[in-house]
Amino acid sequence: MRGRGPGRRGGERTLKPRAGHVDGTHLAIVLIVAMSANGFLALPRFVALRAGGAGWLAMGLGALVALAGLTLLVTALARFRGQGLVGVAAEVAGPVVGRLLVLPLFLYFLADTALTGREFAENLYLALLPNTPVPVTAAVLLGLAGATASLGLETLVRAAMLWSLIIALFLVPLLASFVTLADFSNLTPLWGPGLGSLAIQGWKDSGLYPEYLLLGVVAPLVRRRQELWRAGALAIGGTWLVLASLSVLTVAVLSPEGAARLSFPVFVLARSVALGRFLERVEAVFVFLFFLALTLRKSVTLLGAAFLLAGSLDLGHHRPLVPALTVLAYGLSFVPLSVTEAAALDFTVIREVLWVLVVGLPLALLALAAGRRKGGGGAARSR
Mind listing the domains of the chain with CATH numbers? Predict the structure, then answer.
């Protein structure tokens, strides 16, 4: 009895994530940091190119579209208690089609890990490590992300709670220092390229928030499923606030044309700030924040890919998959010939069509669930 009881339960804790042990608010903070990390990369450049000074409005419209997708996702999950995204897809579409439904999300998480790793390594090469080969830097950074992801969701949440405090402590004064350099007339005209173009771009900008779908993937691990919508709304709203602030300040200081010419506008912006007589190299603080945020982002997307693959293969745990996915992401990160090509692939190709995933996947699950229930074949809720 002694060997089969507590000992066995203790072994299960080390092998499988514990259901219901992640707080929804804490998970929202993880997603805010992860999704906001794009603002430290080339995102402000492409926002300036597409919408000028109205980029913050386009991203706000995208956030509203993502909130609609979140509502659809939570409604679909509510029909199948105890199931996550993979389980719901299998329930409503069958095991084969269900796996095909979640495959695009898996591919996105893997591609984002690869592209972010490449952009991250190239940025560090330009900023701090000019004598270190980019492949070496990328290998170390992706290795750190893989090690963090292998520790599981609860450990990642605890690390994110600490990192988010550090990031907020330094980022808020840094953003405030940008205000002194800003010329807010650069944000005019308010509607940017026009209302029609702004609305279309806003719909496409919902592709800045696909990580909210991770809430569906880890839904069985969340303490109270009623927290899912609130956590997702907090994550999407908080991310928009950070990205909008970075976009507005970048355009206000550098002008839309100036921001559009730079690969990493926020880093260049940080170089122009001096906080007093003895603190002039503010970009060093920025690189520190950049490192924390991007490492967390890569850990989140890698963990999401591992969870999706483990669920699709009916594996008991994601951990054995993390090393292979990390190596695969490292190889994929050097498919683009340059960092400019990698950023263009990320922000002008992948994110331009991600609205299909952000809205289409939850809508498909809800429609299939409704049709299955109406047909009488799947009205029973998941056990």
Answer: 20-365 (1.20.1740.10)
